[in-house]
Amino acid sequence: MGLHMQVIIALLLGIKRNGHIFIGLLLGILVGFLFPQESYPRVYGILNFIATGFIYVIQMVVLPLVISAIIIGISNIGDSKQLAKLGTKMLLYYGIITVVAVCIASFIALALHPGLNAQSLINPDVIQNIQGSVAEAIQYQKENLVQIFLDLIPKNPFEALSNGKMIPIIVFVTIFSIALTRAGEISRPLVALFESVFAATMKVTDWIMYLAAPGIFALTATSVASFGVSVFNDISKYAIAIVLALGIQFFIVYPLMLKVFSKVPVGKLYAAISEAIMVAFGTASSSATLPLTITCCEKRGISNRVCSFVLPLGATLNMDGTAIVQTIAVIFLAQMYGIDLSPLLVFEIAFLAIIASSTSAGIPGAGLITIALVLNGIGLTPQQLVVGFSLLFTIERFVDMLRTICNVTSDAVVAAIIADNENELNYELLCGQTVENKA
Ligand code: ASP
Questions:
Q1: FRET partner for 58 with CA separation of 20 to 30 A, picked from 73, 81, 337, 340?
Q2: Predicted local confidence at residue 397, as pLDDT
Q3: In the predicted model, is pLDDT for residue 174 greater than 80?
Q4: pTM of the entire structure?
Q5: In ligand 1, which atom is closest to the CA atom of 325?
Q6: How many domains does the chain fold into?
Q7: Mutation to probe ligand 1, out of 320, 354, 404 (largest number of atoms < 8 A from CB)
């Protein structure tokens, strides 16, 4: 049986196990189509209330979970040699996945030419609406390129915490955790405290999953209700290029990575994380999905040591799905405006997409803000950029939901590979029958 068939069957099996969430997702699509936002604002209002409530509830556990997971992860690894080894491996695998991603994206965008003749699709109303915000975002990125990198340093960790700025928080907690391990025995009580925090947040995550079916239903319904179907006809070539590239990444690249670097059976892994995949699709947020990604991976045999180190860092740093979208989107705009795409320019776009994507937070829409960093390189006028953005915005939510699936799946793929390499993957759990909640 072909690899892609195995993956699809495994996903369906996984989905069967989480049937209620999957049904929620399908119903959400149906209700979204039947009750478009403009015609049924009341229905939309109710659905939006449920969807937002669900996102808030998951976000509630993200900070305590990320902080406790990293502290436990790093202190479990112990000595600095081990940490450096694991850290290097993690960056290497995340790096390979993202480089392959932008290569595929460039190839597909150059082969399909989604931007040719796209100028006729421009809708003046949309341009009017977003003009201000786009100009502001682009100006900010231009003027604050250095500041963007400086902002990664947690100048005031408490300010970063209260504003939920994930990247500086992770930088701070990582440094703090390394220091804790260096401090030796005296830090043990603090680590024990965070072990309790971790255990409790995992329990809360289990409870939250009882809300997953209505939550995913409402999230999907609101997304479909607000973007409608007609826009797909307008921008179909761009959408096809994105779906194709993300599909290749999901169905070919990850399975190949698993095959080349480990003996993890791809179908089993995908089935194990299917719940996280559906939540990633519904929430369009890697950070919000993180508690679930950790739960799925741990329950299915990936060690806590690997999960708590690799997954939280991956949820903020590893954004290969975002890099794919940014590369295709920028090449799309360049083609639309007839900019000569020399090999060097394509390389520059792909390179900037790697940087821009990894500075994107794991929240909805983050990738379409940092894309300004990539766009700066291709020499479009501000007016052209505004028009370009107006096109990208038309299907942004849908594209965001899809790219987040890749962002989340690749984190789990890298965690599984590292766990396999380190002999920390319990194959019986991964390949066995469903493991029941410990509750
Ligand atoms: N929504 C994506 C994520 O959370 C980030 C992005 O906007 O590309 O992974």
A1: 73
A2: 81
A3: yes
A4: 0.79
A5: 8
A6: 1
A7: 404
- Tell me, in angstroms, the distance from the centre of ligand 1 to residue 161's CA: 20
Q: Is residue 120 part of a domain?
A: yes
CA nearest ligand 1 atom 8, residue: 367
Nearest CA to ligand 1 atom 6: 367
Q: What is the CATH number of the domain that holds 123?
A: 1.10.3860.10
In a domain, 238, yes or no: yes
Question: Amino acid identity of 313?
Answer: L
Q: Look up residue 35 and give its amino acid.
A: F
Instruction: Answer whether 349's CB lies under 8 Å from 316's CB.
Output: no
pLDDT tens, position by position, 89-112: 999 999 999 999 999 999 999 998
Cα of 318 from ligand 1 centre, angstroms: 10
Whether residue 439 lies inside any domain: the answer is no
SS3 sequence, the chain? Answer: CCHHHHHHHHHHHHHHHCHHHHHHHHHHHHHHHHCCCCCCHHHHHHHHHHHHHHHHHHHHHHHHHHHHHHHHHHHHHCCHHHHHHHHHHHHHHHHHHHHHHHHHHHHHHHHHCCCCCHHHHCCHHHHHHHHHHHHHHHHHHHHCHHHHHHCCCCCCHHHHHHCCCHHHHHHHHHHHHHHHHHHHHHHHHHHHHHHHHHHHHHHHHHHHHHHHHHHHHHHHHHHHHHHCCHHHHHCHHHHHHHHHHHHHHHHHHHHHHHHHHCCCCHHHHHHHCHHHHHHHHHHCCHHHHHHHHHHHHHHCCECHHHHHHHHHHHHHHCCHHHHHHHHHHHHHHHHHCCCCCCHHHHHHHHHHHHHHHHCCCCCCCHHHHHHHHHHHHHCCCHHHHHHHHHHHHHCHHHHHHHHHHHHHHHHHHHHHHHHHHCCCECHHHHHCCCCCCCC
Instruction: Kindly state whether residue 436 falls inside one of the protein's structural domains.
Output: no
Query: If you measure from the C-alpha of residue 27 to the centroid of ligand 1, how many angstroms do you get, rounded to a whole number?
Result: 24
Containing structural domain, residue 14: 3-431
pLDDT, one tens digit per residue, over 358-369 is: 877 788 888 877
Count other C-beta atoms under 10 Å from residue 343's C-beta: 9
Of 240, 236, 234, nearest in space to 120 by CA: 234
